[in-house]
Amino acid sequence: MSSFKNKAFMVTGAARGIGLEYCRQLGALGASVIAVDINSCEETVRAVIDAGGQAIAGIVDVTDMATIDAAVLKALDAFGRLDGLVNNAALYGSLRGGRFTDIPEKDWDAAMAVNVRGIWNCCKAAVPAMRKTGGGSIVNIASLAATYGLAFALHYTTSKAAVIGLTRGLARELGRDNIRVNAISPSLVLTEGTREFFGEKAAKALQVIAEDQAISRNLSAKDVTGTVMWLLSDQSQFVTGQNIAVDGGTIMH
Asked: Is 184:246 a contact under the CB 8 Å cutoff?
């Protein structure tokens, strides 16, 4: 995918897990990356550089516009452009499941603030820079939870359904700017966040989900990166407003 040469991308939630893998793969394809997270991304920066790319890090709280604006300016100062955005940051591992009537209001509000408003905020900050570049690609990370209808995690499920709606509406708004907006909906991925969310039930949850897939194994972070790289690349330049399931064949449309 030669279209990554001389291009710059911002990845949120980049300190660990899938976010780190997105950054590493962008680096391997020759891209420049600004890796941002509420936690330090220095490990991610090293991974990108080791893979052959350029990278800088930023501390960002996606609910705080000032920190996002600062990160975009930092990217423009370092790389002179911004060609894409991966909205990966989300509340997941720290959330606690349970019946919808037992979800604390503060947890519901926190899920919506980070998982939905956080994407809106990052798009508001990044789109003007992408317009100046001449266009680009935004990839929002939704979840199979939204399309499958994951029970006992209604705050997370609802927030990810909102991400899909946001993606489709924004794609229509930004098409004339040559900015594509798509989402992916992965199945349960083997990450630290998954283990945190399910706790002692993680092994059983992973088994049940794998058995329901046509490809009956659990996803790793690397299984998801290929679809994201394709959506960021020029090879998908006529694809926008889509939600692509990366779920081993759980839901087939």
From this structure: yes
